[in-house]
Amino acid sequence: MAEDLYSVLGVQKTASADQITKAYRKLAKKLHPDLNPGDTAAEEKFKQVSHAYSILKDPEQRGKYDRGEIDASGQERPQQRYYREYAGGPEGARYHSTAGFEDIGAFSDLFGDMFGAGGGPRGGRGGARFSMRGQDAQYHLDIGFLDAVNGTKQRITLPDGGTLDVTIPPGVTEGQVLRLKGKGMPGLGEGGPGDALVEIGVMPHPVFTREGNDIMVELPIRFDEAVLGGKVEVPTIGGRVAVTVPPGSNTGQTLRLKGRGVKTRGGTGDQLVKLSVMMPETIDDDLKRFAEEWKKTHSYDPRRKLKEQA
């Protein structure tokens, strides 16, 4: 991704975290694939917007991007650092920093204590070989909301061009760390490799929110559906389903869909559907006449309890 991340979201570089989140949510609602089926251009733009937000929402990543330490794709820019190689090498030897790995200077310090100038182990007998387990490698992976609740597989491209396949279990949460055994840095001697620690970031969804294992969604309904009731479609994390709106429903009333939430080892949540009664965008003459006639014989005070309690 070569385009400036701030331009992708349509915000200034000085935008606050709240402004960045607001811009992302506005674009996500407009471009989300669920709302634009078959529109490949919208899908590609949604991916770009999601990627830009994944970097700019994180203060540390945003700082690195602003300072030019990482590029728009999130990859670390090549930087050279220097260290003294205590294991008998020349001073001023160079190495390239590798994103996600610990500074190898810690290793050279350790070698300085345990190895002599000739490279043999100090105090050892018979040329015993030194072994050490490899260090753990740390990564951050942002995934979509539905991928987090339903589970998926993702591939991370490493700074050296290699790849790491990650299986995301259903129900993973923001900040959760997945451990991939033996996928870290190689060990020394007979020491085994370290592990890969993958911290998960979950992108917000334009329709769904999550509370524990429950999924929350707001469902707009017409005023006649609120009065008369009826069957309406509602999106769930498993697809659209029909729900029954009871007659006389009000804004704020919540319907519970059992077992339609997040499935984890600890159990399965529900989906909570919060109703929101929406008037038509244009109030025509027929509706006005109906309301005027109805008011003459059916007037009521919806604020009566509020007045009594005030």
Task: Explain this structure.
Among the domains are: 80-114, no CATH class; 134-203, Urease metallochaperone UreE, N-terminal domain (HSP40/DNAj peptide-binding domain), CATH 2.60.260; 209-299, Urease metallochaperone UreE, N-terminal domain (HSP40/DNAj peptide-binding domain), CATH 2.60.260. A hairpin with a 5-residue loop joins strand 4 (152-157) and strand 5. Helix 2 (17-31) packs antiparallel against helix 3. It starts with a helix and ends with a helix. Residues 79-124 have low confidence and may be disordered. The chain has 310 residues and is an alpha+beta fold. The chain has a four-stranded mixed beta sheet with strand order 8-9-15-12. Strands 3-7-6 form a three-stranded mixed beta sheet. The protein is built from nine helices and 15 strands.
Provide a concise account of the structure shown.
The chain has 310 residues and is an alpha+beta fold. The protein has helices spanning 5-9, 17-31, 40-56, 59-66, 105-114, 145-150, 223-228, 285-298, 304-309; strands at 80-83, 93-96, 137-143, 152-157, 163-168, 177-180, 196-202, 209-211, 214-222, 230-236, 239-245, 254-257, 263-264, 267-268, 271-278.
Count of DSSP helices?
9
Structural class determined from secondary elements: alpha+beta
| CATH overall fold name of the domain at 209-299 | HSP40/DNAj peptide-binding domain
CATH architecture of the domain at 209-299: Sandwich
What is the helix/strand order? HHHHEEHEHEEEEEEHEEEEEEHH
Major sheet: 4 strands, mixed
Low-confidence stretches: 79-124
- The best one-word shape is elongated
CATH superfamily heading of the domain at 209-299: Urease metallochaperone UreE, N-terminal domain
Strand content range: 25-35%
The radius of gyration is 29 Å
Approximate helicity band: 25-40%
Biggest sheet: strand arrangement: 8-9-15-12
Strand segment tally: 15
Query: Taking all residues together, what is the mean pLDDT?
Result: 81
Our measurement of the CA-to-CA distance between the termini, rounded to an integer number of angstroms, reads: 57 Å
